[in-house]
Structure formats: C-alpha cells, structure tokens
Amino acid sequence: MAKEKAEKPEKTEKVKKVDEKKKKEDEQLKHIVRILNTDLEGKKQVQMALTGLKGVGRRCAFIFTRNAGVDPRATLGLLPDDQIDALKKAVEEANVALPVWMRNRREDFLTGEDKHVMGMDLNMTLREDLDVMKKSRSYKGIRHERGLRVRGQRTRSTGRTGAIVGVSRKKEGAPAATPAPAKE
Questions:
Q1: What is the CATH number of the domain that holds 95?
Q2: Average pLDDT for runs of 10 along the chain of length 184
Q3: In the prediction, which pLDDT does 151 show?
Q4: The pLDDT value given to residue 176
Q5: How confident is the model at residue 56, as a pLDDT?
C-alpha cells in the first residue's frame, strides 16, 4: 500500500499579490523615525507612535496628526518624507496647536507663560523644579531630599524600604557569647 503524498495546492493569484505587496512595504518601511530627538517605531500607527515622545499622550498625538494633515491610523514608517516633515513641524509648534487648558506647563514658574514641554526638556524642567523646591527648603523639597512620600500618603505602615529595623533573632546553633572573666 503506497501512501500518496497530498500535494499542496499552489497559491492563488490573490495570495501572491498580497505577498508581493507585503514584501514591497517591508522594503519601503522605515523601522525608526526620528522626531524631537527620539526614535519612534515605524511599524506603529502614527497616533500611537507619537505617544512614544515624553509629554505626548493620545489626545495630543491626534491633534498633531490633524494639524499636519496626516492620517492618524496610517503606519508611521510608510509615510513619505514630506508628511514626516509636516509631522515634525506640527510637534515642534505644540504651543500654537494645543489649547491652553491642554498644555502641561501652565503659568511657568520663571516666565509666567503657558507652554507644552516635551522630550528631554520635560526631564530638565522637572529636575529644575525639584532643585528650586529643595533650595527654598519647602516641605515638598525636604520630602524629596529625604526620599519620603511627598503627597500626603500614609508612611506609618507602608513604604518601608531600606535598612531593616526591629527585632533580630539569633541564629540557631550559634555559640552563646561567653562572659569575660572578672578581674581581681
């Protein structure tokens, strides 16, 4: 009894066209797109990829894509260079595009203006704010210095990290300490 091998049916024309299309897209796909000194994944949708920027959420990303005239559901790596440039320009002009209530730095401590800070600038402003609080010896600054909870959380029973405080038990089988001989 000879077993007949089941022959695999050849791919249909539709399947072949889809495979060729995927290969072309993979060749054209930019895996990394650089916006605001940050590498963004080219495989993601434009709106979701923009959330990889620090200080940009989904709502901000949608506004940026709308202002740039880019489809928010398109794949970022497949966009032509002119649309990527328009997207970069829209992100850089966030202070114009975003309404005042949506900005993350309202009434700046030093300048008093409303602005939206993103990327490495966000890290720097946060660090500067903490330094000002520490130098002015405000309550929040002191709590930050000591590494304690800042926003009024309970500290009596939670957040116990660091050195162990409390009763330590003797190890079993350890020799007991012998008293020193008395001097006469």
A1: 1.10.8.50
A2: 57 72 72 90 93 93 94 92 93 90 87 89 91 95 93 86 72 71 72
A3: 92
A4: 65
A5: 93
- CA dist 76 and 70 (Å) reads 10
* Residue 68 within any structural domain of the chain: yes
Domain count, the chain: 1
Question: 3-state SS of the chain?
Answer: CCCCCCCCCCCCHHHHHHHHHHHHHHHHCCCEEEECCEEEECCCEHHHHHCCCCCCCHHHHHHHHHHHCCCCCCEHHHCCHHHHHHHHHHHHCHHHHCCHHHCCECCCCCCCCCECCCCHHHHHHHHHHHHHHHHCCCHHHHHHHHCCCCCCCCCCCCCCCCCCCCCCCCCCCCCCCCCCCCCC
Domain hosting residue 86, numbered range: 26-99
- Domain assignment present for 50: yes
- 23: tokens are 């290969």
Kindly state whether residue 63 falls inside one of the protein's structural domains.
yes
Q: Which amino acid would we find at residue 128?
A: E
Please give the pLDDT value at position 25: 65
